């Protein structure tokens, strides 16, 4: 059964989804943002690489309708892995006529919650809200690079989250993350000048 911590994480996932709903993005923009958030869960190996945020949300809603509820699993991740499988009756045609926003927002809720479960000591809710409401900064390309850190270098991933949310105060940490963002910018835009890469990287600091 769900404990208090897991219940709080799920509530945070709902809060992130609601924040994006309030932002009033068009469906295509919302889908891009949702897939960017989901990319971190993919990097952690919880979501399948071929999944998209709309399908994730659709699976979650259909599973809950069938009584496959997260509170019946030991962890939220275990539930997500279950609904990613193909043997419980998921029907991709069932909700074909449902507004895509509902499925996307549910997918955001699921994707963000499963990451927050793994990083309970970080301000992940703030990070995902910032990322979701600043899509020009937190593109899929950038979020994929950040997601790789979540899997390979959790400490640096934590520093990135704190950098973006303004909780990173140590100068060495700030400098390290700025350098990291510069490298990301150079990988996304080959040939970018050091000055432009630095300015872009520095703009991520305490972006809220």
Quick description:
The chain is mainly alpha-helical. The chain contains ten helices and no strands.
Describe the model.
With 208 residues, the protein is mainly α. Helix content is 67%, strand content 0%. It contains 10 helices and no strands. It starts with a helix and ends in a 6-residue tail after the last helix. The model has no long low-confidence stretch (mean pLDDT 91).
Which helices and strands appear, and what pairs or packs with what?
Elements: H1 4-23, H2 27-43, H3 53-65, H4 76-83, H5 100-118, H6 124-133, H7 140-152, H8 154-165, H9 171-188, H10 194-202
Helix pairs in contact: 1-5, 1-6, 2-5, 2-6, 2-7, 3-5, 6-8, 7-8, 9-10
List keywords for this structure.
67% helix, single chain, globular, 208 residues, 0% strand, 10 helices, mainly alpha
Helix content: 55-70%
Strand/helix succession: HHHHHHHHHH
Number of strands: 0
Report the portion of residues in β strands: under 5%
């Amino acid at each position: 059964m769900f404990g208090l911590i897991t219940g709080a994480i799920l509530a945070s996932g709902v809060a992130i989804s609601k924040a994006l709903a309030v932002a009033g993005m068009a469906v295509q923009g919302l889908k891009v943002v949702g897939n960017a958030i989901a990319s971190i869960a993919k990097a952690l190996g919880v979501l399948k690489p071929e999944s998209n945020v709309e399908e994730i949300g659709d699976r979650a809603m259909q599973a809950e309708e069938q009584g496959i509820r997260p509170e019946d699993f030991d962890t939220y991740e275990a539930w997500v892995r279950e609904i990613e499988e193909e043997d419980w009756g998921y029907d991709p045609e069932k909700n074909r006529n449902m507004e895509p926003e509902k499925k996307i927002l549910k997918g955001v809720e699921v994707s963000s919650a499963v990451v927050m479960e793994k990083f309970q000591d970080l301000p992940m809710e703030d990070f995902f809200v910032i990322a979701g409401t600043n899509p020009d900064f937190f593109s899929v390309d950038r979020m994929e690079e950040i997601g790789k850190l979540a899997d390979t270098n959790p400490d640096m991933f934590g520093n990135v989250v704190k950098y973006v949310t303004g909780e990173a105060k140590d100068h060495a940490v700030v400098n390290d993350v700025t350098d990291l963002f510069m490298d990301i910018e150079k990988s996304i835009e080959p040939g970018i000048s050091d000055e432009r890469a630095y300015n872009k990287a520095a703009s991520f600091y305490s972006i809220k």
